[in-house]
Each structure stands twice: as structure tokens, then as C-alpha cells.
Design brief:
The protein has 10 helices and 15 strands. The protein is an alpha/beta fold. The protein folds into 2 domains: 157 residues, Quinone Oxidoreductase, Chain A, domain 1; 137 residues, Rossmann fold, CATH 3.40.50. The strands form 3 sheets. Strands 3, 4, 5, 6, 7, 14 and 15 form a 7-stranded mixed beta sheet that branches. A 6-stranded parallel beta sheet has the order 10-9-8-11-12-13, sandwiched between helices. A two-stranded antiparallel ribbon has the order 1-2. α4 crosses α5. The model has no long low-confidence stretch (mean pLDDT 90).
């Protein structure tokens, strides 16, 4: 099968096409014919091995343990193990795996769900990782509730476009912060007010702020919260080569016990229940992926480079 592999950490130059054996399902695995794969910031973090904390988290200290990048996907079940009864060849599915920048990938029953009928493969592949993050930031860390006032910073990006829609689906009043080119997009997703960060600052009195951008201080963010509001820090890019955005999260956790506001970081996880929740929101018409652009499998380096530049509107996908 054709795949995009890397044998060392580095820039997009380390991503190269290769022919690999097709994966085997084993007793409890599912082999999927990939039709589309999503590209998120985690892809280039693992490609570069940065910050260095990534390497110490089990991904490989000197070189990546997994050669094929990509986790989000949508595709068609190609084969199943003898113990698998929930899916069969021909089923259209979406979810996560290890190595979706390839024609075939091995995954598990708990990592996939039936593809929403409302979505094509490209759209479905854009959902899992970014939408998991948005859902868990709002529901689990933020405890979002109806009629709350919510602000999403980075509202035009991969996580942000999902966060605006999910917050609105939970009954909150949502405002967004984004660049000038994305203002109309964020407003179309349901934001009551949209702030262009190049021209204006956002207000105060928010019950919940979800910050996906990572370029504002804790002090300035806290000023925009209510006295008992909640701040959820989601990723963000910093110049720290050792721990990157984790540094800001650690500062928030240290400060948290001394203030009335709730300061929380998020390390999102992939799980079957949340995948089904997202699927239900999609089928109900409350959640629609935003696709910035699509690339072919051979264009993966260019796609990752585009995401690395940090100005995408929604998600970038790979068609396979």
C-alpha cells in the first residue's frame, strides 16, 4: 500500500512516500481502507518531535516509533478480526487510528463509529480529534450550561469552529475571537458576536472562556471572566522547545488554588462514547465540519506545512 512515512524528526522534508505491507486485523482489529484523513497540529508536533516533552511521552526519543503520521480518518471497513461482530467489510466508518496518511490502516472497534450519513468522507475525516477536544473542553472541563456566556478564542480554527457550534448546541450564548478573514465564517457558525483580534479586544463577564490560541496571558484572560468563571486552556503554540504550551497550563494549575476562578488545562482523549455524541450532533444538524482545503496523499508535506503556518479556517484534509 502507499503511505507517507518519516524515519526521523524534522521539517516536512522528512515526510516521504513509501510502499508498505497492508496491515492485518488480528483477532480483534479492524482494517480500514482510508478514503480521507484529517490534519491537525498534533501531526506536525509529532513530525518535529516538538516540544521535546512529546518525545518523552512515548513517541520516541531519538526517532519516531510510528513511521506513519495521521490519526483522524474516514473510510470503508476492509477486513475484521474473528472476534469483531459490530462491523463488517463495506461499512462506512470514521474515527481514529495510528497512521491515517496511508491507503489502509489498522484500528479498533472502540475507536470507530459508523460515518454520519450527512457527511462525505472528507467532512467526516475532519471531525474526531478536533471535535473531541472542543467537546471535552466545553462539557467536561468547562461544565458549559444553557444561557451561559461563552467566549471561544481561535474560533476560526480546527478546534474553534467545532467549539462555537457545540457551545451553541448546549444552549450557551457564544462569542468568538478570530482573524479578519474568518469573521464571517465564525458568525455563520452561530457566534452572537465576533471580535477581530487585529482591530479590537473582547469584553468582560464571560462564564467560560476556551482559549485555543495560546498567545494571551493568564492575567488578561482572567480579567474577562466573571469572578467565579472558568478558563480552559487548549493547546496553543509557544516558542518553548522543552514543554511548549504545557508551561502556561502548569502556571494556571499552580495559580488555581489561590483564586475563585477555575483555571484548567485539557489533554483530550479519544473514546467511543464521545465519538457517538459527536455523530448524534452531526446527524441532528447541530455540528458541521468546516473544511479549509483538501490535498492528495502525495501532497501531505504541503498540507502539514499549511497547518503549521497556523492560519487555516477549520480543518485541512487528505483525500486518499
Amino acid at each position: 500500500m502507499k503511505a507517507i512515512v518519516q524515519n526521523e524528526y524534522g521539517t516536512t522534508d522528512v515526510l516521504r512516500p513509501a510502499d508498505l505491507p497492508e496491515p492485518e486485523a488480528g483477532p480483534d482489529g479492524v482494517v480500514v481502507r482510508i478514503r480521507a484523513a484529517g490534519v491537525d497540529p498534533g501531526v506536525w508536533h509529532l513530525m518535529e518531535g516538538s516540544p521535546y516533552l512529546v518525545r518523552l511521552m512515548g513517541f520516541g526519543v531519538r526517532r519516531p516509533k510510528a513511521r506513519v503520521r495521521g490519526m483522524d480518518f474516514a473510510g470503508v471497513v476492509h477486513g475484521v478480526g474473528g472476534e469483531v461482530t459490530r462491523f463488517r467489510p463495506g461499512d462506512e466508518v470514521f474515527g481514529t487510528c495510528q497512521g491515517s496518511f496511508a491507503e489502509y490502516a489498522l484500528t479498533t472497534v472502540d475507536s470507530i463509529a459508523r460515518k454520519p450519513e450527512r457527511l462525505g468522507f472528507d467532512q467526516a475525516a475532519a471531525v474526531p480529534i478536533s471535535a473531541f477536544t472542543a467537546l471535552q473542553a466545553l462539557r467536561d472541563k468547562g461544565r458549559v450550561a444553557p444561557r451561559q456566556k461563552v467566549l471561544v478564542i481561535g474560533a476560526g480554527g480546527g478546534v474553534g469552529t467545532f467549539a462555537v457550534q457545540i457551545a451553541k448546541a448546549f444552549g450557551a450564548e457564544v462569542d468568538g475571537v478570530c482573524g479578519p478573514a474568518k469573521v464571517d465564517l465564525v458568525r455563520s457558525l452561530g457566534a452572537a458576536r465576533v471580535f477581530d483580534y487585529t482591530r479590537e479586544d473582547f469584553g468582560v463577564g464571560y462564564d467560560l472562556i476556551v482559549d485555543t490560541a495560546g498567545n494571551r496571558s493568564l492575567t488578561s484572560l482572567r480579567k474577562s471572566l466573571t469572578p467565579r468563571g472558568t478558563l480552559v486552556l487548549v493547546g496553543g503554540e509557544t516558542a518553548g522547545k522543552w514543554i511548549g504550551p504545557v508551561g502556561r497550563t502548569l502556571r494556571a494549575l499552580v495559580l488555581g488554588p489561590f483564586v475563585k476562578q477555575k483555571l484548567r488545562g485539557l489533554m483530550s482523549t479519544e473514546n467511543q462514547d464521545d465519538l457517538q455524541t459527536l455523530r448524534a450532533l452531526i446527524e441532528a444538524g447541530k455540528l458541521t465540519p468546516v473544511i479549509d482545503r483538501a490535498y492528495s496523499l502525495a501532497e501531505v508535506p504541503e498540507a502539514v506545512r499549511h497547518v503549521r503556518e497556523g492560519h487555516t479556517s477549520g480543518k485541512v484534509v487528505i483525500t486518499v
